[in-house]
């Protein structure tokens, strides 16, 4: 017996013509044809790792001291607080939510405290006033720790939430308000770091070369995870394991590179949609996290040479088996514009037997004696079969089990896949000019100083024509 950790697996058989037919499927020749480009992408990632905005590649290796501080701080929070609330959006929220959903009890917040053994967990990633107001209805401020997370330190949504919460805390606790809030932000740039220093707020730093959607494995995700009792060292070990496994240039052994290559060929053939379909509720929010990573990183108008390319693949979130009863009809018979990625699990962390009964009804009774585990696995295999039979490109990622190590592997796998795919497309996977445009327009609409020109630009937009607005009469 070795102590080698169990690896996740990537299976792209059903992208190949032998399985999905010659018209849609790829041949070994097709894979060989993109090998030079894949090699360039591999070398680009290898050369640039740890530099510029690729600081995320080193997170599994360079956070020894910060991990110690996080574990120490998390212990104190677990002792004194009964709720932990993240205020953040996009990359400052999706990772914490995905890891919580994957690695905590699925009904965590509803468990009695004795069973929960960690604070209740909330991630507030919207500024819907009804949502904020309902949160304030249920929180006991005395027992709540807030974690405001923003890399830029100035995102309107997050900073509005900060203003509301800090005002409440100050009114209740005066000088001691900062004992109820922790900031996670850039060490130098943005307003939050300056505010945190002024208000004496404990702060964790988002390393300079780590952008929002690549930040789950730094304090953005590690502090909430540690507060929830998740083994963050194991999470980082899983990420390191995948990172090391992907240091081979050969697409037949580097699974993130192989994955990027299959998506790249698919995109070149007009497959503009990437459906992520885990067959596990615990992985449901991994799809949300993936959607941001894939969409914001690859959806670009220009390549690095400044030429217009308009590339990207629209991520769609689906859940097996639930969405078999809503979306799979389209995937099986609709346009040939998708790649469906299934995520399966070998061993679920629970086994549920289907009870005996309905003896007079063979159409129901055949289920008896089986388990829900068998049912969900069979349904994934069956959907995979139906798609393949209908010549639909699909792939499968399998986790031996959902645990901190395999989630670390999976997240690193997707980040590397995105980095390789970005390099193959020749775009900057780390900027988000489209998001910035919206952020700046919001500043202008709310009258932020310095955005007068943007406000003038917005005010000059054509009035909406009532002719195209209908009300029920
Ligand atoms: O990936 C990104 O950089 C963005 O989606 C950000 O995460 C998002 O806009 C929130 O930004 P910030 O963390 O600066 O508040």
Polypeptide structure, described:
This protein is an alpha/beta fold and 473 residues long. The protein folds into two domains: 9-50 and 236-425, Rossmann fold; 55-235, 3-Layer(aba) Sandwich (Rossmann fold). It has helices at 17-20, 28-33, 35-48, 64-80, 94-103, 113-116, 129-138, 156-173, 191-199, 219-227, 232-245, 255-268, 284-298, 328-333, 362-365, 372-389, 404-425, 433-445, 452-459; strands at 9-11, 83-87, 120-124, 144-150, 181-186, 202-206, 273-278, 300-302, 308-311, 314-317, 338-345, 394-399. The strands form three sheets. The protein has a five-stranded mixed β-sheet, sandwiched between helices. Strands 3-2-4-5-6 form a five-stranded parallel β-sheet, with helices on both faces. A two-stranded antiparallel sheet has the order 8-9. Helix 5 packs antiparallel against helix 13 (284-298), helix 11 crosses helix 17 (404-425) and helix 12 (255-268) crosses helix 17. The longest helix is centred in the last third of the chain and has 22 residues, at 404-425. It is globular. The protein starts with 8 loop residues before the first strand and ends in a 14-residue tail after the last helix. 41% of the residues are buried. Bound molecules: 5-phosphoarabinonic acid. Residues 89-92, 150-152, 155, 158, 211-213, 296, 432, 435 line the site of 5-phosphoarabinonic acid (PA5).
